[in-house]
Structure formats: structure tokens, C-alpha cells
Amino acid sequence: MYLVTDKGVVLFDSPWDTCPFQPLLDSIEARHHKKVIMCIATHSHEDRTSGLDYYRQKGIKTYTSKQTDEISKEKERPRAEFLFSKDTVFTVGKYSFATYYGGEGHPQDNIVIWFDKQKLLYGGCLVKSAEAKELGYIAEANLIEWPKTIKKIQTKFKNPAYIIPGHYDWSSTKALDHTLTLLSEHGKK
User: Fold this and answer.
1) For FRET with 50, which of 24, 37, 78, 94 sits at 20 to 30 Å CA-CA?
2) What are 78-131's pLDDT values in tens digits?
3) Which segments within the chain are labelled E, that is strand?
């Protein structure tokens, strides 16, 4: 996901493979006539952090939580240049968005991004698409805390107009409820 502002483009998470790093930047610039100026990774997995080193070398400011950085360092994954230790509000151009850590889930360090004015929640891999049939990769998941984290997010961000999951379709606002259903079904296995 990315946000186009009058100051430049903010990228949320990075591609997994190295091949699309530059083509993504080129595509965004060709389409919007703006450069990517910032990238925030929502957790430490490769499908969120792989491009951080590359983007930093391109002069793009890269951000993660301190918790994500500690895991990335331990697992020798790419790391961001800038770190935040608590929920943080960023303002870029005319847009503001906030990071929120509701607790452990898909991995222990996942955050979500909330755009209050637009009522948009970017859930990353913590939130499963309404079309998802399973939880996906759960080797680093906390399956006990994950439902609690989703419920905290539902309480904090009521009635989102859009919910963007980390993978698949985002046309349904039922993704949080569906994530809870998948977690419940997994617990019954």
C-alpha cells in the first residue's frame, strides 16, 4: 500500500523479492509524478522489511518500531534507519496517520496503520482478507494473544470504511471479524 501526498509518496511495507524494488519506485513515479520519500514496515517478516536497505540507499526514510528492529537485528533481516518506541502519528503533506501496536498476533511485533480522517485501517499481515481460507504463516504467531489484539483494534478503531489486509482482497470491511473466525476455527483443530 502507498499514500500519495503533495510532499511525496509514503510506502507501507516493501516487496518481498528484490526484483520489484526499483520497478515499484519507477512505477509510482511514472504514475503519480512523485518520488517515494518514506517507507514504514509493519513487522519484521521478509514480506514487509526486505526492501528497507535498498530504499534507504535510495535516500528514502525507512521506519519500524523498536520491537521490529530488535527482531530484524536478531534474525539478520533488513533494518530501518529510524525507529519509534510507541504509537506515533506521522503527518506528510495534508495527510496524517498513526501507528498502533495492539499486542502480539501474526508475529509479536505487528503494528497497524490508522488514517482517522479517511477511516482506513491498514492491518498488514495481522489482518486476514475476508476471502482468506486460512491464517497463512503462523510459525512466529501468538495464537492465544492474536484474537485479543484484533478485539483491541476493533474497540480502538470503530467502523472503518476500509480495511486493507496484508494479502489478498480488501473490498470487505469484515476482515477483522473474519480474522477472528479463522483464529477460532484454527483453535478447534
Assistant:
1) 94
2) 999 999 999 999 999 999 999 999 999 999 999 999 999 999 999 988 999 999
3) 2-5, 8-12, 36-40, 61-65, 82-84, 89-92, 95-100, 112-115, 120-124, 162-165
Q: Are 80 and 53 in contact (CB under 8 A)?
A: no
Task: State pLDDT tens for residues 27-53.
Answer: 999 999 999 999 999 999 777 888 899
pLDDT at 7 over 80: yes
Taking each helix axis from N to C end, the angle separating 175-187 and 146-156, rounded to the nearest 10 degrees, works out to 160
For 136, the grid coordinates are: 497463512
Distance CA 112, CA 122 (A): 6
Give the integer Cα–Cα distance in Å for 68 and 66. Answer: 5
In sequence order, what are the beta bridge partners of 96? 91
**Cell numbers found for residue 168:** 489478498
What domains lie within the chain, and their CATH numbers? 1-100 (3.60.15.10), 124-189 (no CATH)
